Amino acid sequence: MVSNPVHGLPFLPGTSFKDSTKTAFHRSQTLSYRNGYAIVRRPTVGIGGDRLQFNQLSQAELDELASKAPVLTYGQPKQAPPADFIPAHVAFDKKVLKFDAYFQEDVPMSTEEQYRIRQVNIYYYLEDDSMSVIEPVVENSGILQGKLIKRQRLAKNDRGDHYHWKDLNRGINITIYGKTFRVVDCDQFTQVFLESQGIELNPPEKMALDPYTELRKQPLRKYVTPSDFDQLKQFLTFDKQDS
């Protein structure tokens, strides 16, 4: 509760009184000029002529306060708590990179085709760095399709190193179990993920087509032997003749 500075009474209706001896209620002048320059003066009295109570500090004391470290007042700065550890199988759960690729397979026992282009999808599972290769099923292809390589960690060299997502990119060849796959493109999620990790992606390439499959899509040619039978000649010859 605020007390009346004159009477020491609570500042409530009926307990505050005006000082009849005060006649000047102007504010003290704080700006003056000396040799043509404006000088700011600290006021010593307030409204009504009451003397202001303040602590006047010297320039040396102000400099000491400016250079004083707030260690004793606030203590040593505290480091932010470390982020919660999230294991990879939780952070990358159900996050899969998908690449479009193909490989060439020789067909030595066929007279209609010398090689075959087989289009596949390469999946990279971020949660455990495993991979799988799946070939989309083509109707009436006559070859075994589907899952070519089941999900597992795939070795990339004889030293036992495994493929990592940093090793994958567009426009490169990767060898898996003796087969060379040409990676031509990837989906949107894969592109965004790799670019966010600082991987510079190569431009996409056009998917190679299987020549024999494209040949089968063309309509079959029909060979019809022309007939020498002339219906008009027969009509003119046997006109008006009884059978």
Automatic annotation (TrEMBL):
Keyword annotations of the record: Cell projection, Cilium, Cytoplasm, Cytoskeleton, Flagellum, Repeat
PROSITE patterns: DM10 (PS51336)
One Pfam family in the UniProt entry: DM10_dom
Principal location class: cytoplasm
Top-rank taxon, per record: Eukaryota
Domain named DM10: residues: 93-198
Location(s) in or outside the cell: Cytoplasm, Cytoskeleton, Flagellum axoneme
Entry-linked SMART domains: DM10 (SM00676)
GO cellular component, one term: axonemal microtubule
PANTHER family membership: EF-HAND DOMAIN C-TERMINAL CONTAINING PROTEIN, EF-HAND DOMAIN-CONTAINING PROTEIN 1
Protein name: EF-hand domain containing 1
